[in-house]
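Kindly inspect both lines:
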Amino acid sequence: MASAPTHFSLSLRTNQQTPIPKSSFFSLPKTHLHFNSNNWLWASVSTARKSRICASSSSSQVMDPFAAKSQPALPEIVQVDLGNRSYPIYIGSGLLHEPDYLQRHVHGKRVLVVTNKTVAPLYLDKVVDALTRGNPNVSVESVILPDGEQYKDMDTLMKVFDKAIESRLDRRCTFVALGGGVIGDMCGFAAASFLRGVNFIQIPTTVMAQVDSSVGGKTGINHHLGKNLIGAFYQPQCVLVDTDTLNTLPDRELASGFAEVIKYGLIRDAEFFEWQEENMQALLARDPSALAYAIKRSCENKAEVVSLDEKESGLRATLNLGHTFGHAIETGVGYGQWLHGEAVAAGTVMAVDMSYRLGWIDDSIVKRVGDILKQAKLPTAPPETMTVDMFKSVMAVDKKVADGLLRLILLKGPLGNCVFTGDYDRKALDDTLHAFCKS
């Protein structure tokens, strides 16, 4: 007889009541876990306690994005605490001009930079310089892949292996992922697989990658039947976030990344969500202070969850709010037609709708979610071509299916709380699908 599905609920509470200025930077308080009377796992937070996730105090200034600085500002540092696999996330302006942050994490003398045809002309030379400046013993190879989610497949992955083998790289080499989430996922999976595992570094250049996909060690490729079904957990040596790379990011890609930022507020950080409601226009306008704060706070939230549940046994699954619906959209319409964040945004609306139908949240949360996604210029419904049957067929092979039971991340309770559960009324799921699909 199958065991009852486990419910998880996350809550981030603080004693801080004053508004957060957009230039503020502070560490995420340490989370304490306990079970309530219903045997649900809760995470509560007190600002009076220090977090194990630490950050150096500095502020990023943007003038000429890649002008050399005589006295460069120290980066913010968020630590991902995984014992002997722990690593830092460096966040700041102009970090590609500071070679020490990369060079200290390169093992051996051979480096392979994996990037794509869009990012390579902008940043490949800068990364090669950062890896080799004052370090003549290091040699750098590169492989430039096509750009787009539709190329996150086995055929494209083989181009990375081809280059590594042709270059006779050994187990002391380091792979460097330079690009967005697709490049990070593919390079990480290649690093996990090549010679059964070599070092790798993440240099994310999109909001999506900087706040989410580069952190936590999820790597992989898509299958035509479902997204990210082939992959491995494999942690990087470090993540280097140069916020100046966002200056060249197209508006659509910028907005797409905010779907993941919004997610953190909904599932565990109500105060951060409220800050986003007040500062979304500043984020869309690429205000440096607002972007730096949003990136850092998002990384703190993700690092805290990853440090508690690296392999997604339960708690980490809550980071996938809206993703089950969103992945179905990406698969159903064809990879690359909708950006990942666009699909997640529509999927989040559907998850929130279902949560409301179950009576787990009030209508004010439904309205606030719709409003902030519209502010961020993100979709609030799936494409008209998606049908109920398309959703169900793709969701049936989702990674969160266990013993034939589809488990979902849904909101429950006040803002900032969620559950990961298979224990819900199936009629609510059907009603949500029919409400958003014409057939």
